[in-house]
Amino acid sequence: MSNSVIVISDEKFDTEVLKAEQPVLAYFWAPWCGPCKLVSASIDSIAANYSDRMKVVKMEIDPNPATVKQYKVEGVPAFRLFKKSELVLSHEGAITKQKLTDLLDAHL
After folding, report:
1. CATH at residue 43
2. Which of 5, 60, 72, 77 is least crowded, fewest Cβ atoms below 10 Å from its Cβ?
């Protein structure tokens, strides 16, 4: 299993997230978002540390409005955790690596 973050688009969301065998953390971001820059290192670290239990994908919000609308992403950074195509965790706003890890551990 890869230990890196997979960049996806609206077209890949169904395949990479909803049809995934393992849980998937979807990270929504934007290049103009300051807080996104702060959490990106944490996302890379989580992708590496959780690669045996979870897949991590990231999606830029501006070119992917369908998924953003469907999952009610109203601010970035935003995080959505899916298990067997079901949304089980939703968080918006900057978060420390430890708090994100705690949230994930509660669902994995």
Report:
1. 3.40.30.10
2. 72
